[in-house]
Design goal:
Mean pLDDT: 91
CATH class of the largest domain: Alpha Beta
Oligomer: single chain
Largest sheet: 9 strands, mixed
Number of domains: 3
CATH topology of the largest domain: Dihydrodipicolinate Reductase, domain 2
Strand content: 15-25%
Helix content: 25-40%
Radius of gyration: 23 Å
Bound molecules: nicotinamide-adenine-dinucleotide
Strand order of the largest sheet: 14-13-12-11-7-10-9-8-15
Number of helices: 18
Shape: globular
Distance between the termini: 78 Å
Number of strands: 15
Length: about 475
């Protein structure tokens, strides 16, 4: 039987072999109606907030390309919720499996790929079990949270011959892809250093201190959970690999002391039962938002997980203020900062090249949490400043939808077998996944020890990803224009 083939899980796609055969076998097992179904079979593990993007893709624009045949989670309430959402979308509800039955799900469903969207520290377990069962993986970022787990994943890919796709959606935002194109064009020459500063505000940024993300053992801290996006962007923008990391980090805002400085008695357990909810403007009302209520408040009775823990709790183990220096194999240095209590959310990045400077900035959320696409012309700026000469403002490429339009482009790249070949090579595998999370893991080690960390000391066998060619650090560059005096 012919199966639609293509770059469904990236450029090193090997799904067409064993996995295609197993999907066909499953379809035949399921009877004549399914045997005629040529769509790829996907299963998901961890069906909380982020998984909805994949569900909506497979129930909407990509329903002709794939089906979500099963969903797996520790929380039966969220499994029920997925089934309800599928029915509302007119799709067949995915078969529910509790997390203890993950391997059974693989055996019974014989999927082409597993979509991993659990909290970060659990990715490795499902990734490795899927690979060893001969199934490809699509995993959310960060690929994993520790060097030991990264090593286990790298080994499992080599052992199994299967494929991992790490869904770095930030690469796909049209204006960030445009930055890559500008850098590839050589307009600023080769890049000697990068200054990159990411700001999280007290709406979205504060949320990391309420959820599982506030526990470093589960999220790896913001250096891993959040900055993995940013480190990946730099690795990809430069087509380079990190070699050394130095960093400092602290938590000085989301603290019990800060609660008292704001006039509260101190931290409490959670917003829902908070005695000071009227005074605290960081209060989150789960009951007031139908989505949050259904996904988390109503599902608490199954696992006791509170989505609205107090942001001032003493037991929070992640930093809110982080500064990092990264050295790259090609010689470029990155100066990066992340802090989580800012007046607006977004970033500024500048590439200092041998022919000039590229400046790029994005306001993702203003102080009042506006949407990124409301006024792109004001929110997204890209500028080329030659070493000598007139600066040029570049009209940013933009798109519609979440993450600046990046999610839709990435989903097409993942699910659509007819997606065009990507000259920017935005599909990342375990090599890109590891390169990015290892910078964050190294930064966390620096926080603990005060010592720099070499990436090669963390894992072995990390190969270079295949990435677009960039202007070389030894290429000839034109002498800049003569300065006019007098
Ligand atoms: N690329 C992006 O822009 C982006 C955005 C948001 C989240 N994410 C990533 O998506 C993943 C999920 O984040 P989220 O915001 O959806 O979190 P979430 O808390 O909303 O959902 C996590 C789900 O996993 C389930 N779960 C917890 N432990 C599990 C286990 N051991 N086995 C199976 N299921 C388990 C939970 O019950 C929940 O349903 C994370 O890795 C996060 O980093 C990526």
């Amino acid at each position: 039987m012919d199966r639609p083939e293509g770059p469904a899980v990236g450029r090193r796609d090997v799904i067409g072999g064993l996995a295609a055969g197993t999907a066909l076998a499953a379809a035949l097992d399921a009877g004549p109606a399914l045997a005629a179904d040529k769509r790829k079979r996907y299963v998901a593990v961890g069906v909380g907030s982020r998984n909805r993007m994949y569900q909506q893709a497979l129930w909407g624009p990509h329903k002709a390309h794939g089906e979500l045949v099963a969903a797996c989670d520790t929380n039966p309430g969220r499994l029920d919720y997925v089934a309800q959402q599928a029915s509302k979308a007119g799709a067949r509800p995915p078969k529910p499996y509790l997390a203890v039955d993950f391997d059974k799900m693989l055996r019974e469903q014989k999927p082409d790929a597993v979509i991993v969207t659990t909290p970060d520290a659990f990715h490795n377990d499902y990734i490795i079990r899927a690979l060893d069962a001969g199934v490809d993986v699509i995993t959310e970022k960060p690929m994993t949270t520790t060097a030991e787990k990264a090593q286990l994943i790298l080994d499992a890919v080599k052992r199994s011959g299967r494929h991992i796709r790490v869904t770095f959606n930030y690469r796909y935002s049209p204006f960030r892809s445009q930055v890559k194109e500008l850098l590839m064009s050589g307009v600023i020459g080769d890049v000697l250093s990068v200054d990159f500063h990411w700001l999280l505000n007290t709406v979205h940024g504060a949320d990391y201190f309420r959820r599982w993300h506030s526990n470093k053992a589960i999220s790896g801290g913001l250096m891993v959970h959040k900055a993995t996006h940013h480190f990946d962007l730099v690795n990809w923008w430069l087509s380079d690999m990190p070699v050394s990391v130095n960093a400092t980090g602290k938590r000085e805002f989301y603290t019990p002391e800060m609660a008292r400085r704001f006039g509260l008695q101190g931290p409490h357990q959670r917003c829902h039962t908070c005695p000071e909810k009227d005074k605290c403007t960081f209060f989150l009302d789960l009951a007031a938002d139908p989505g949050l209520k259904a996904l988390y408040l109503d599902a608490e009775k199954y696992d006791g997980y509170f989505r609205d823990q107090c942001v001032w709790r003493p037991e929070i183990s992640i930093e809110d203020t982080m500064n990092v220096i990264v050295g790259y194999a090609g010689g470029t240095t990155l100066s990066y900062s992340l802090n989580a209590f800012n007046a607006w959310e977004g970033y500024t990045v500048a590439f200092n090249g041998t022919k000039g400077r590229l400046e790029h900035s994005v306001v993702e959320q203003g102080a009042t949490a506006g949407a990124i696409n409301e006024r792109d012309e004001d929110r997204i700026k890209t500028r080329i400043i030659p070493m000598r000469g007139e600066a040029q403002d570049i009209k940013p490429d933009t798109g519609a939808g979440s993450h600046g339009g990046g999610d839709a482009v990435m989903l097409a790249d993942i699910f659509d077998p007819n997606a065009p070949k990507d000259p920017l090579m935005r599909a990342a595998d375990e090599r890109g996944g590891a390169a990015s999370c290892l910078i964050g893991i190294a930064a966390d080690k620096c926080f603990e020890t005060g010592q720099p960390v070499r990436i090669e000391s963390l894992v072995t066998g990390l190969d270079w990803p295949t990435l677009p060619k960039m202007p070389g650090h030894k290429d000839r560059v034109p002498m800049p224009m003569r300065l006019q005096h007098g």
